[in-house]
């Protein structure tokens, strides 16, 4: 049963075709397109793919983008399925006040991270960080309960906000340094350490709440930028959303 997984973010659409809907699936093909180019998928990257039998997607880019993606999938005969966060799925319990209002990418990433943790062992709490246009930092206890999470601006939003609100500051190409001595380095370092500090604070909260050291997982397009500046031990995972979609697909279709 071939399975198509879609991750439609604020900047790019990433896709992966697997031989079955399972965390143990083999990857058959994959790719990515910037959102401005998604109208070419059916005549380009998807034109010669084997017909997927099942599809599950995670979209945060809005309904207009989702409709454009669905138009590209009309070359195949199936009904697209999109993730809507629920109260519980695939071993994770949603502790949000209104579960369906949780971002679908956050929900899927948490399920993917827990799947990875269970496969590696031992079972312990989790902090899940996604570094993209926005940054999210989630806390999950050892029983799979999502306790809550932080949302803060990503690097680009922070820097643009400073540029627009502060005379004489311009978006920099600086370096991250312990003691910045020029404005570009100060801005780049400030944004990086703000994100790192949020991660460290959530680890502290979760450690105090559970009495256990949590496993930390980081993902997202800008995760690699954060890696050298993190004082915590963490796993950097490229495709955590796909890990989550495969776990959910096994739960739904398996």
TrEMBL record:
Pathway it belongs to?
Answer: Cofactor biosynthesis; coenzyme A biosynthesis; CoA from (R)-pantothenate: step 1/5
Q: Which GO terms describe its biological process?
A: coenzyme A biosynthetic process
**Keyword line:** ATP-binding, Coenzyme A biosynthesis, Cytoplasm, Kinase, Nucleotide-binding, Potassium, Transferase
State the superkingdom. Answer: Bacteria
Q: Which residues bind substrate?
A: 96, 103-106, 183
Listed GO MF terms:
ATP binding; pantothenate kinase activity
How are cofactors bound according to the entry's free-text note?
A monovalent cation. Ammonium or potassium.
**Tagged with keyword Transferase:** yes
Q: Which residues cross the membrane?
A: none
Q: Give the main location.
A: cytoplasm
Q: Where in the cell is it found?
A: Cytoplasm
Which cofactor(s) are needed, names only?
Answer: NH4(+); K(+)
**Where, in this chain's numbering, is ATP bound?**
7-14, 133
Q: Which InterPro entries match?
A: ATPase_NBD (IPR043129), Type_III_PanK (IPR004619)
Q: Which reaction does it catalyse?
A: (R)-pantothenate + ATP = (R)-4'-phosphopantothenate + ADP + H(+)
What does the record give as the active site? Answer: 105
For this protein, the record's Pfam families field holds:
Pan_kinase (PF03309)
Keyword Repeat attached: no
Q: Name one GO cellular component term.
A: cytoplasm
How is this protein organized at the quaternary level? Answer: Homodimer.
NCBIfam families, A to Z: baf
Identify the PANTHER family for this entry: TYPE III PANTOTHENATE KINASE (PTHR34265:SF1)
**Which family does the entry's similarity section mention?**
Belongs to the type III pantothenate kinase family.
Quote the function comment for this protein.
Answer: Catalyzes the phosphorylation of pantothenate (Pan), the first step in CoA biosynthesis.
Q: Could you identify this protein by its name?
A: Type III pantothenate kinase
Which organism is the protein's source?
A: Limnohabitans planktonicus II-D5
């Amino acid at each position: 049963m071939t399975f198509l997984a879609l991750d439609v973010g604020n900047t790019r659409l990433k896709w992966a075709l697997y031989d079955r809907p399972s965390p143990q699936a083999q990857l058959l093909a994959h790719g990515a397109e910037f959102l401005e180019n998604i109208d070419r998928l059916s005549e380009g990257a998807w034109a010669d793919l084997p017909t997927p039998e099942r599809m599950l997607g995670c979209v945060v880019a809005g309904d207009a983008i989702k409709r454009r993606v669905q138009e590209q999938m009309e070359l195949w005969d199936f009904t697209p399925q999109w993730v809507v966060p629920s109260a519980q799925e695939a071993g994770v319990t949603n502790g949000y006040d209104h579960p369906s209002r949780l971002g679908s990418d956050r929900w899927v990433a948490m399920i993917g991270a827990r799947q990875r943790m269970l496969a590696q062992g031992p079972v312990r709490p989790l902090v899940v960080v996604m570094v993209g246009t926005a940054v999210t930092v989630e806390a999950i206890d050892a029983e799979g309960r999502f306790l809550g999470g932080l949302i803060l601006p990503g690097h680009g939003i922070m820097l643009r906000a400073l540029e627009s609100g502060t005379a004489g500051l311009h978006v920099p190409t600086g370096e991250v340094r312990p003691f910045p001595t020029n404005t570009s380095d100060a801005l780049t370092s400030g944004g990086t350490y703000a994100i790192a500090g949020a991660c460290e604070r959530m680890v502290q909260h979760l450690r105090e709440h559970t009495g256990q050291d949590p496993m930390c997982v980081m993902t997202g397009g800008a995760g690699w930028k954060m890696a050298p500046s993190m004082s915590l031990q963490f796993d950097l995972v490229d495709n955590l959303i796909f890990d989550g979609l495969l776990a959910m697909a096994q739960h739904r279709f398996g």
